[in-house]
Specification:
The protein is of the alpha+beta class. It has a single domain, classed as SH3 type barrels (Roll), CATH 2.30.30.110. It is built from two helices and seven strands. The chain has helices at residues 24-27, 79-93, and strands spanning 6-10, 17-20, 31-38, 47-51, 54-57, 62-65, 71-76. Strands 1, 2, 3, 4, 5, 6 and 7 form a seven-stranded antiparallel β-sheet that branches. A hairpin with a 2-residue loop joins strand 4 (47-51) and strand 5.
Length: 96
């Protein structure tokens, strides 16, 4: 099982690297919600720089079935970064 905040490499998808943003209780199902990690600054509104040349694209969430894909963990974001990512995602759904 993967945990919220983990950075994983996923085989067979376009963006390869992603941050798991779904809660651990949901992740136990094998499905996870992830945000892609871009190797250069993307042209999007909701992004967070997590290293010198990596950005989490917060407005491009994907649901992925890890039972059907090969993946492995390559690290994790910090707790403050995870909070910022989740806040950006939440801002998509906020009411007026």
């Amino acid at each position: 099982m993967v945990e919220q905040g983990e950075i994983i490499m996923i085989e067979g998808i376009r963006f390869k690297k992603a941050v798991v943003v779904s809660k651990d209780t949901y992740n136990k199902t094998g499905s996870v919600v992830v945000c892609p990690v871009a190797p250069e600054e993307p042209e999007c509104t909701l992004k967070l720089r997590i290293s010198e040349n990596e950005y989490v694209i917060c407005d491009n969430m994907k649901v992925t079935d890890l039972n059907a894909r090969r993946f492995h963990s390559v690290g994790s974001v910090t707790y403050p970064e995870l909070i910022r990512i989740c806040d950006m995602i939440q801002s998509i759904f906020d009411y007026y």
